[in-house]
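Sequence, please.
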C-alpha cells in the first residue's frame, strides 16, 4: 500500500507507511487545527498513538475515565483499546500525533512515563515536537532516504519526551550499569515470558539481588519487574486471542501460565473482560467491519 499524504491549511496527515523496522517504526503522523466539538471514536487501533496538544483543550476517555486535556499535554492510546476524544466547543484544540509500533515501543513509552497507568503527561518541548512531526510530513515521498528520515524523526520525538520526563524526576540521572541491568531484564522477559519464570529467575540470570533489581527497575521503568512481566504476558495474550484461533487454554500456556483458570481471572482483573468475552468482542467487530465493506 502506498502512503497517503494530505496537506491543507488546517490538516496535514501522513499514513499507511510501510513498516521496515521490527524494533520501532512509524505508522502515521499528522497535525490538525480542530473545529469546535470535533471528535474521534469510540474506536480502537492496532498501534500506539500519542497526541500532543499545541493549544486549546478537549477531553480524552479511556478505561472508563475522562481526562481534561490542555496545552502541552500529551496523551497515550495503546493497541486494541477503545478510546474517545473530543475538542472543546469554546476553545478547540490544535494537536499533532504520531502512531507507531515495534518491540521497543512500550519500553520507550515507559521511559517517557506514558502508559496505561499514566495516560497523560506534561511536556514543554513543544517546538521540538512540532519540528519533528513537520520533518516526518515533509519526508512524504516513497524513497529509502525518506524512510530513514521518518524513522529518525520518530526516535527524536520519543527522545524529547524521555529527556523531559527524566528531567522532571527527582532522581533523573541513573548510572549506566542501572540501565544495562534493566535492559538485560527486559531481554530475558522477551525471550522467556512463555516459560514459568519469576522475578528471582530474572535477578539470578543477571547476577544481582532481587530487591536491587526491583529498585532499579522501578526507577527506570516506573513499574516493578513483576508487574511488567504480567503486563507483557497479557499484551501477548491479547494479540494471540485477536490474531489466532488458539483456545484460551493454549493461549494461557503460550504466555507462561499453566493454569488457564488463573490466567482468565488475571485477564479479567486487568481488562474488565474475560478472554472468551474479548474474543467474542473481536469477532463481532470483524463481522461488523465486513458488513460495512
Amino acid at each position: 500500500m502506498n502512503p497517503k499524504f494530505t496537506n491543507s491549511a488546517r490538516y496535514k496527515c501522513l499514513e499507511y507507511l510501510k513498516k521496515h523496522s521490527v524494533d520501532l517504526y512509524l505508522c502515521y503522523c499528522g497535525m490538525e487545527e480542530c473545529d469546535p466539538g470535533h471528535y474521534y471514536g469510540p474506536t480502537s487501533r492496532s498501534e500506539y498513538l500519542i497526541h500532543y496538544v499545541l493549544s486549546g483543550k478537549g477531553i480524552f476517555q479511556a478505561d472508563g475515565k475522562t481526562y481534561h486535556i490542555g496545552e502541552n499535554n500529551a496523551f497515550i492510546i495503546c493497541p486494541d483499546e477503545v478510546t474517545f476524544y473530543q475538542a472543546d466547543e469554546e476553545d478547540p484544540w490544535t494537536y499533532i500525533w504520531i502512531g507507531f509500533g515495534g518491540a521497543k515501543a512500550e519500553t520507550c513509552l515507559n521511559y517517557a512515563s506514558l502508559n496505561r497507568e499514566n495516560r497523560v503527561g506534561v511536556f514543554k518541548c513543544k517546538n521540538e515536537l512540532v519540528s519533528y512531526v513537520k520533518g516526518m510530513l515533509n519526508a512524504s515521498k516513497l524513497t529509502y532516504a525518506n524512510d530513514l528520515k521518518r524513522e529518525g524523526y520518530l526516535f527524536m520525538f520519543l527522545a524529547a519526551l524521555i529527556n523531559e520526563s527524566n528531567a522532571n524526576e527527582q532522581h533523573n540521572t541513573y548510572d549506566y550499569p542501572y540501565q544495562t541491568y534493566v535492559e538485560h531484564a527486559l531481554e530475558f522477559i522477551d525471550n522467556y515470558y512463555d516459560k514459568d519464570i519469576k522475578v528471582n529467575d530474572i535477578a539470578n540470570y543477571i547476577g544481582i539481588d532481587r530487591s536491587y533489581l526491583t529498585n532499579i527497575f522501578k526507577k527506570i521503568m516506573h513499574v516493578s519487574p513483576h508487574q511488567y512481566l504480567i503486563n507483557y504476558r497479557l499484551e501477548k495474550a491479547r494479540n494471540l486471542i485477536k490474531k489466532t484461533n488458539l483456545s484460551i487454554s493454549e493461549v494461557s500456556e503460550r504466555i507462561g501460565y499453566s493454569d488457564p483458570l488463573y490466567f482468565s481471572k488475571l485477564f479479567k482483573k486487568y481488562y474488565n473482560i474475560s478472554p472468551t468475552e474479548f474474543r467474542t468482542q473481536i469477532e463481532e467487530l470483524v463481522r461488523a467491519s465486513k458488513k460495512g465493506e
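The CA atoms of residues 214 and 228 lie 11 Å apart.
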